[in-house]
Amino acid sequence: MALNSLTSHGERLTGLRRDVLNAMHHLNRPVGAYELFDHLKEKGRASAPPAVYRVLDYLTAHDLVHRLPTLSAYTACTAKPHRHDASFLICRACNNVEEIDSPAPADVIAAADLSNFSLEHFSVSITGLCRRCGQN
Amino acid sequence: MALNSLTSHGERLTGLRRDVLNAMHHLNRPVGAYELFDHLKEKGRASAPPAVYRVLDYLTAHDLVHRLPTLSAYTACTAKPHRHDASFLICRACNNVEEIDSPAPADVIAAADLSNFSLEHFSVSITGLCRRCGQN
DNA sequence: GTGTCTTTTGTTATAATGTAACGAAAGCGC
DNA sequence: GCGCTTTCGTTACATTATAACAAAAGACAC
Fold first, then answer.
1. pLDDT, tens digit, for every residue of B60-105?
2. What is the DSSP string of B36-99?
3. Which nucleotides of D are covered by protein (CB under 7 A)?
4. Is 90 exceeded by the pLDDT of residue B55?
5. 0.85 cut: is pTM over it?
6. Which residues of chain A have pLDDT under 50?
7. Do A87 and B112 touch (CB under 8 A)?
8. Optimal mutation site among B123, B131, B135, interface A, most CBs of chain A within 10 A
9. Which residues in chain A (12-31) have CB-CB distances under 8 A to chain B?
């Protein structure tokens, strides 16, 4: 779900949320929650870490932002409104990240090729229900 | 590189490292560094967090242990000595994890099927060098 | 617009995770 | 044993994240 479809579903893109999202799009790279907090605080737009984390949680839940656990960082979603699981090319040198909006893991390798990204390692995280928990 | 090939390459599987690895195999689930620390401390086998982190770093570097960033946890490698990138099926209900020793991301989906794991989301993390950093 | 309810934000304090730095101890080669 | 390298102990601290509760703002009926 992306920005447009957000407000049309009863969701509230409040001032703070919009500020955070704008900041992230402006920065255009993975940012830590505290870095974001400092950035917003300079402009008098954030009070304390919990506010930032709440907004990040909200934006993440609505797929406007993605969390990058390996970097303990967050990045603005660059994909089309259409919902997909997101994957990432993470450069170990410059630490920049390219989002891959992929319908399946197999496509991600092709996308890396297209970006002239020289792949060293990959890891697929699949979440869901294991055999036991899913068979209720 | 796994246990056997470790000592035959000049690497030292010291007492502490062996204890940590044994504990992790015994627990047989993702454990946080501090949980592991407490566990070891009860048995008089660990001094302080840095020791645990150092050993985890070492074991991770040698592929005897994997880190699960989404859980801030670590798990003993269950794959064959043969080196592969590791992927994971993470159950959101019981929090247990199954390692997939996969030659390519595409295989991971098939492996999930084989395990009767009901997939809800996936994310592929690819690390390497981006176009700019890799071209020199 | 007032009152009421829900959602969002502010605020304080603290938990959980991870590291820097440095000296002591243990292993290794000679 | 002696010097060198690696590992470990120890203290202190940095970074990331959350619990809990009060205040403020928005939605909505009346």
1. 999 999 999 999 999 999 987 667 789 999 999 999 999 998 888 9
2. HHHHHHHTT---SHHHHHHHHHHHHHTTSEEEEGGGTEEEE--S-SS---EEEEEETTT--EEE
3. 6-12, 15-20, 26-27
4. yes
5. yes
6. 1
7. no
8. B123
9. none
